[in-house]
Amino acid sequence: MGEYLLRCVAGGEVLPEHYTLSCKEHSGLIRTEYAVQQLTVRQELPGMFRYLDWLPVRGTLSTRTRPMTFQSKELCRELGLPNLWVTFTGYYPERECFVPTGSFKELEALPTVVRLAENGGGVLVVASAGNTGRAFAHMAAEFGTPVIIVVPESSAKSLWTVIEPIDPDAIKLITIRGDYADAIAAADRIAASPGYLSEGGAKNVARRDGMGTVLLDAAVTIGRMPDHYFQAIGSGTGGIAAWEAAMRLAADGRFGFEVPRLHLAQNLPFVPMVNAWKERRDLLLDRDMPNAVEAVSVVSAPVLTNRSPPYSVPGGVFEAMMFCGGDMWAIDNAAAKEAGRLFSGVENGIDLDPAAAVATAALISAIETGAIAPQDTITLNITGGGYARVREDLGIIPVPVTAAVTANGIPRL
Ligand SMILES: *Cc1c(COP(=O)(O)O)cnc(C)c1O
Question: Which residue lies with its CA nearest to atom 15 of ligand 1?
Fold first, then answer.
C-alpha cells in the first residue's frame, strides 16, 4: 500500500524521496508512480485513507475527512441533468460529510502531514488565502504537527479550529498587510531558514494526490469515470490532480479509458487562466492580470486569486487541459451567488464556499451554452461548504495571530 516512486515529468528521471518538491535538472512538476495499478478501496482505513493505494504515504491518521460522492435528486431535476453527481468535501452530516474545516484543502493537509513525518519531518510553512491555512491549523491542533501559516490580513478571520490545540505552540499564524501574493512571498522568505520547509503547493505530490481522491471517489461511486469534471480553480492544482487521477483510473482498466473533460472556473474579474486558455498560450502577467490588486479585492471567492499558478509548466494546468479537453469558465459574483442559493435550496440549506458556488455556476453556464449534453455523466466538485453547520454543531475557536507584519517584512519567530 502506498508504495511509490517520484518521477520528473519533464526529464523522466526517478528522484529520491525526502519530501522532494522538484527536480534539480528540469523545471515543472514531479509526479508519483504507484506500485499497484489497480485500486483497492480500503474501507477499513479512516476517511480519505481508503485510497491509500494511490497516496504517497504508508501510514494514516485518524480522520473522517474524505470526499463524498452522491446524487442530489433535486439538483438533477432543477438542472435537467439525470447523470449529475456531486462530490462534496465539507461539513454536511445528513450526507455523511464530516470535514471539520469545511474544505477540500484537508485532502491536501492530511497526506502532506503524513508524507512529511515519513520523510524527515520539519516545520511546515504554508501560505494561504484561508482554507489551506485552516486545514493545516486543524492538523496542528489535532496531531501537534508544527506549522507556520502565512495569510493576508483580510483572511485572518478564516483561521479557526474546532478543537483546542493539543499544543498551542504548534500553530504560528502570521498576517501580512497585503494580498495572497504577498503572503506567498513572505512564506518563501520564512521557508528559506534552516529547519523550515515550504509545504510546496502544486509541487507537493501529497497535495495533488490528496485532491485526486475526489475523482477516485466519483469513479468508484459511479462505477466509471465521468464525462465531465467541474471545479473552481485558483492555482489549478485540483485540475492537475484530476487529470493525474484520471490517467491512473484509465490504466486500472475498470473505470473506462476516456478521461473526463475538465471544466475549470475562475471568478471575474480575476480570470488569468481563462484568458490564457481561450487563446491557447502561456500566461502573460500584463495581459492576463491587468489591475490584479483591484481585481483580487472584489472577487467573492478569494481562494481563487493565485497570481502565479502552475499553468505553463511541464505537467501543469495547460497540459492537463490539452490532454483532457474541456473548457475554462469566467464566472461573475452574481452568477456564483445565485448558484450557491440554488444548491442551498435543494440541499438542506448547506452554504457553499464561494469557490464551490463558482463551480456550480460554471456547470449552469455549460448547460446554457450546450457545452455538455443533458445525458452526460458529470462530477461537480464541491470543494467546500457547510461552514454555518460547523459553527452550529462544533463551534469554532479562532487561531490567535502570532505576528502581524508589512508586505515586505519578515516576522521574528
Ligand atoms: C483552494 C480552493 C479551490 C481551488 O483549488 P485549486 O488549488 O486551484 O485546485 C477551490 N475551492 C476551494 C473551496 C478551495 O479552498
Answer: 131
